[in-house]
Structures are given as C-alpha cells and as structure tokens.
Amino acid sequence: MEGKRLEYRGEEALKELEKFTAKADEVQENILKEIIARNCETEYLKKYMEGSKDVLEFKQRVPVITYKHIYPYIQRIANGEDSSLISGHPITEMLCSSGTSGGEPKMMPSIAEDLNRRTFLYNLIMPIMNQYIPGLDEGKAMYLYFVKAEMSTPGDLPSRTVLTSYYKSKNFRCRALDAFNDFTSPNQAILCTDSKQSMYCQLLAGLVHRHQVLRIGAVFASALLRAISFLQRHWVDLCNDIRTGHLNSSITDPECRSSMSIILSSPNPRLADEIEEICICPSWKGILPRLWPRAKYIEAVITGSMAQYIPSLESYSGGKLPLICTMYASSECYFGVNMKPLCDPADVAFTLLPNMCYFEFIPLGENGTLLKDVDEEEEVPKEKLVDLVHVRLGCYYELVVTTFAGLYRYRIGDVLQVTGFHNRAPQFRFICRRNVVLSIEEDKTNEDDLHRSITMAKKLLEPYNALLVEYTSYADTSSLPGHYVLYWEITEYISADNSPTPLDPKVLEECCITVEEQLDYTYRRCRTQDKSIGPLEIKLVQPGTFEGLMDLFISQGGSINQYKTPRCIKSGNALKLLNSNVKASFFSPRYPLWTP
Fold it and tell me: What's this model's pTM, rounded to 2 decimal places?
C-alpha cells in the first residue's frame, strides 16, 4: 500500500473509503492481480500455477485451504527457510492467534507493508465516529490496551500477537499528536508486558483524568469487564496513590514508574475522595458514568461470542452509554469497519474494505436459512466460491481470503450474513466461528446456536436479580449416553433492602431445559427419540473462576488483548480448573419438545 495513504485522516480518509467501495470490483481485481504477480514464483503458487500470472488460472487451480495445509510452509519459514516458499516479499514476523478459538495458537505470516493496511483501517475509525458523536476532540480516550511478551522463532523471526506488533510499531508509538486520539494511558504502561502492572497503571491514569474521559474501551468486551473486576479489587490502593501522589510499591516496572510519576505529579486528596465515595457503594450498577461522567460511549468488540457480555456492560454503564463495535479484524488480516456505529449491538454489520486483501466466500445458505453442509476440513469445490461484489443480500457465507503475505484462498472460519451494501462493498453481520461446536452423536451445535439458547435461558435469572456473567461448555462423553455440560458463573446483585434474592434450584433446572428447547431439531431428536444424548447439565462455578481460566490461557501464551473465553473446552487443564471450582450442579428435569 502506498505510504501516502497513511496520511489520510478526517474527511480525506472518508473520501478514500468512498473511492474504494464505489469501485469495489475493480479494486478487488487489481488486488488479486498484484498478489499473483508478486508471488507467482513462490514454491506454493508454482506448485499449482507453474509461474502463470493469470487470474482465471488462479481460481481454477489453487485449492481452498485451512491452516493445516499451509502450516508446513509456515513452519519451514519459522525455522529459517526463505520467505519465497509462500511470499515474494520478506516475511518480517509471525503473528500468533489468541490460541483460544481453536485450541493451539496459529502463526500467520506478515510482511512489512501489512502494518500500513492495519493503520489505514485504524485511521478510518474516528472520521466515522465524528459523523455521529460531536466533540470527541475535546477530551481523552480511556482505552485499555495490552501487549504480550514476544518470542522468536528458530529462524529468528519475531513471534507475537497482531496487537502487540501494532502497539510496538512506530505507527503507534510515534503517532502524530491528534486531539481525536489522546489516550489517558501512557505508552510505557501499554507496552509493559506485565499485564497486572499495566492494568493498574492504565486504570490509575484513567481515574486521574476522570473528568476528561470521553470514551471508554478495550479491544474485546471481556477485557473491559476484566478491568472493572480489577478495579473492584484495587480501588482502595488506586485512591491511596492519588491521595498521596505516590505510586504503589507493587509497581516495579521502571518505565511504568517513570511515566506515572508525571501523571501523579502531586497529591490530590479531593479527587481520591470523589472516587472513594463512588467505589465504596455496595452496588456497581452504573459505575462507569459515575466514575467518568463525561464519557459518551463504550467501545469494544461485542459481536459473536462477545455478545454475551452486553448485559454486564449495560449494567455497569447503567444503560447510559451506547456500546460501539467499530471494526472487524483477525491475526490473518484486517477486514472492515462499522459504518453505523450507533446501531443496536444486535445489528452491527461491517463493510469489508476491498483494499485489504482478496475476498471470496463459500455459500452456506440463503433466505435466512444457515446450512451447515460444508465441514471445516471438507474439500471445497473451487467453482463454488463467490467473489466480493457478487454475494447476495440475506445469504450466509464463510469468509475466504488471499493475502499479500502468503495465505491463498484461506478459510478464516467465520460465518457471515450479508445485511446490505455501502456503494458496491457488501456489509456483513458476524454470526459465529464454524469450528466451535459441541457434538455427542449426530448433533452439531455451533457457537451461535449455543449463544442463542443461553440468551433465552438466562432471562429466567432476571426475577432473582441475578446475572450470567460468563459461560463455556463441554461435551462430556465419559459416561453413556454423553451429555452437554455448561459452566456458568452467576453474579447475584444486592436488592434495595441490601439482601440477595435467593436463587431457587428449580430455576437452574428450568434454565437447563430452556437451553435444550432452543437447540436444533437433531439435538432434540437425539435427546428425546433416540435417547443417545443425556440431560443437559449446568455447573455453577465460584466467582472469579473465569478470570482464573483467562489467567491459565494467558500463562500458556495467549494475549489479554485477544483473549476470548473458549465457548467449548478442549483443554484438560482448563477442564480441571473449572471442575475444581464447581459449587453446584443441575440437570434438565425432562425431555425437550420434539416433533417427528
């Protein structure tokens, strides 16, 4: 991408967006031609195209793949072989996935200019937001960003998360002074690899600047909720730091201490008293606008598996702050932006930017029906793919990308639905990940099925002033018949008379059957007719269990920025942690309804 495009901001950035989307077909054709021209001599493409640069031959000969097909090439490059195995440009780093979507972390190749594409997308966010919310240049953004300690591959390539790569880049660290991107967190705190010290300093900076904060956010909703939980445990220490003007001795990172000494320039007992008066209240409903009274919205990923955090965020915001999801991205590639950021969270759709990569789509259904007839590892006929400008409104697709860095017709694993178009570029709603499923026999329950079912069941908790804050699942086949297990962490809020409303065990049993009633025809047939699946079980876990689960995955190489609670547990250590914190179990009391 031309360096000039990094300079596009404000109206210029929006004009560039309009230009790309108005000519989406032309842009996409040129992107594919450029990728092939650059990489046609690579070992991977020569195997299929024998040096040809013809676009039609690419579509006829190059197969649709998953990670296992490209992994041997990536591993060879990681071990020191030349980038020309898959890329005509030098691969400068390997970007690690979160390691929680499909189990093991994946390494994604990245070239130097990929950073420009990511920056281009970031530069679109504020111009879009300014169309809907004025005055965002009159204060600060409290965004909680984190890095992960990076490693090196045997071939001496940096191996790190995509967000760590971006935050450590000159594009972020040396960004021009911009009133629209004035963060409360100093770079030194963001770049601290000790997540607890980083969190402490970033929250402290946000509290010091509480009357200037206009936006609150994190990359994922789960990270923001983790920050709120951290604040609940540490607000006394944070207030003490503000009151005395001295940073807590537990913060030992020299860069953090140096940067925070500037923010804590003098004692401020009045500010500390204000914060203490707010945090000492037994109920933290509406805590965010009370602590940051000028905040206009909350920004985080709230689609897909993150959607289940919406009730918690709405509770902490008192329903006063809109929840905004601005962009769609992954370790493989950045994809698109939300052109209507103030929409209802359930209606979030992303306009795919045709200059990011070459997009193709595997059809999965139409007319509002999602068909799951393409298994994750099943070979996809090449002629079945649809390009960007030929997707159809209302239809479901699985996303496939070809990138400049050496991924060719690579299945991302995301299921999307077309909701509209911006000029000629389609807009998609994220539905689910294809590879997150529970299965005992013939049943196949994906992430979206599970989320919809649990969304219905958790409504039964509302009369008891209780809130489901986190969940995951497991297909237990240790006994016959096997059955679904849901691990739930529930918060019981204090009522007006300061006493919790007791949660009747029968309510949890009804939650079990409500989940089952919402699952698909095949599951209910297996449960009711075939008796090949046993009653669904909900295991209630102790408060803080899912934070412990997050700590476990982070200790194994995951990133706090990219962490998403796995909706299906496959790790033995994770299962052991969950089971060690179970305080009660409940089973479905009857068979779900099923009609032949």
Answer: 0.79
